[in-house]
């Protein structure tokens, strides 16, 4: 359910805003009223030869996907569902941390419209953007490989904008810009700002890897100092390293770099503010 009367996604406003922002991506731009999944749209387009920077948005998704087998709640008229197709010159073995950069792009975009003093967006490794422990956005990065090279990568972002009532299973875990009292912006302007930021972080990541992002990731790390369990390792979140590994310090003081897995927060205080 929406907290605001929302106009539709407008290709002209998005294009104008992208231009004003000097965005490096967002062309060509494709907007569907309804689609199964914008990530699927982008992947199909990649196979058909679409260029670096092509963007795929939809007003609603019928089969929006998250990591694993998760469904992404994608009602019409309320939120942002977008996928950006990139063709970065990055080895397949180095592409995974792009999800963290995309999370930072979301966090930066949202930061700019939250009231001063409001709780800031944080990153829950590897792909969630949280505010006060609730999920505001999710990132789904899917790479298409050619041998050891990345032939294309799709960066999918779902950002909860205007939803004020989530389905029961999400009600205590999700939040939205409307619920956070963020400045109200049209989804078109928001989409353009997010695409522009995604373009900037993708370019920086291609040039220099994750290193330049580590300080900001540390500042925004929702798991730092929390008791967590991931991939059979139980301990305390110690940060994220320059290769994108989650560092977990076990009770014996050994730090384990974890490359993949679903993190369970076992800290009784959760990952709230
Ligand atoms: C997650 O939190 O597990 C990732 C969620 C990613 C959702 C977005 S919505 C746009 C794009 N299309 C999809 O089907 N998924 C991503």
Overview of this protein structure:
There is one protein chain. The chain is α+β, with helices and mostly antiparallel strands. The protein has two domains: 11-219, BirA Bifunctional Protein, domain 2 (2-Layer Sandwich), CATH 3.30.930.10; 223-270, SH3 type barrels, CATH 2.30.30. It is built from five helices and twelve strands. The strands form two sheets. Strands 1-2-3-7-6-5-4 form a seven-stranded mixed sheet, with helices on both faces. A five-stranded antiparallel sheet has the order 11-10-9-8-12. A hairpin with a 5-residue loop joins strand 10 (246-249) and strand 11 (255-258). The structure holds biotin. Biotin is lined by residues 37-39, 61, 64-67, 70, 72, 81-83, 127-128, 138-140, 156-158.
List key phrases describing it.
binds biotin, SH3 type barrels, alpha+beta, 273 residues, BirA Bifunctional Protein, domain 2, 2 domains, globular
Q: Write the CATH architecture name of the largest domain.
A: 2-Layer Sandwich
Most strands sheet: 7 strands, mixed
Radius of gyration based on Cα positions:
18 Å
Question: What is the CATH homology-level superfamily of the largest domain?
Answer: Bira Bifunctional Protein, Domain 2
Share of residues in helices: 10-25%
Please indicate the percent range of residues in DSSP E strands (runs of 2 or more). Answer: 25-35%
Helix/strand order: HEHEEHEEEEHHEEEEE
At the first level of CATH, the class of the largest domain is: Alpha Beta
Q: What separation lies between the terminal Cα atoms?
A: 26 Å
Strand order of the largest sheet: 1-2-3-7-6-5-4
Overall number of strands: 12
The outline comes out as globular
Q: What's the CATH topology name of the largest domain? A: BirA Bifunctional Protein, domain 2
Give the overall pLDDT as a whole number. Answer: 95
